[in-house]
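Bench notes, afternoon.
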Amino acid sequence: MTRKEWKIRAARLLAHTDAPSLTAQLLLCHVLDVDRVALIAHSEEVVPPEAETLLEALLARRAAGEPLAYILGFREFYGRDFAVDASTLIPRPETEHLIETALEFFEQRKVTGAPLRFLDLGTGSGCIAITLAAERPAWKGTAVDISSGALKVARRNAEAHGVSLSFLLADFTQALPFADADFDLVVSNPPYISEEEYAELDAGVRDFEPRTALVPGPEGMEHPRAVEEAARRLLKPGGLFLMEHGWLQGEACRALCHEDFWKDVHTGRDLAGKDRFLFAVRSEKR
């Protein structure tokens, strides 16, 4: 079977999934270790038997609903590939808004080259912390997660991208071993999906991505509440707090930020215009 023939057949078998033709093409590139340009240019080449065997196995996994990122072992985030596995969430494009906002905030204050300290709570694959460290090498970051498996992946990603970070295996809903007012930036994409919402999720998410990284409790606000409490203690006056949340949680997350501790509290929106993350600056009050 030629590359072209296999792609057509695979796309037909994946018709019930998102972007079947692109998925088939990416599977071919992955197994044959070629880019998409070379794949198209040599579409009439025959797929070697051993490669076809592997392709069929991967095709079956995708046809069964497993996310492509887990099958390929990586997902692109902010222009970089990040390894993922069943212990980590798959990075989403919406989370890139946290990166853009943090970089812009400190750029406006003309401190991008200063050795700022940041904390990433619930780091998962490490995509947020590693991207910040890669974009601003002078910044000093600590990535926290309760999952040893996730931290193993995050460490591997940090090494792959040549960044230096501190990693801490800990539950951020409990007291963390840092001094008060120790950080310039606290950023988090915590679990925020309620039990009710979880039951309605796409099967590809519900059946394959780690439940503990999605659902913090019945209402969905349990971890956002804990993250705000941690940020309130750990941020320096004038420090920035950014937290991703569900598109219906904007008001609830803003309500966490009492005026005695926070200023400039507002909700950032994603490209679809939906509420997506909390923005708050630590006030001078202690």
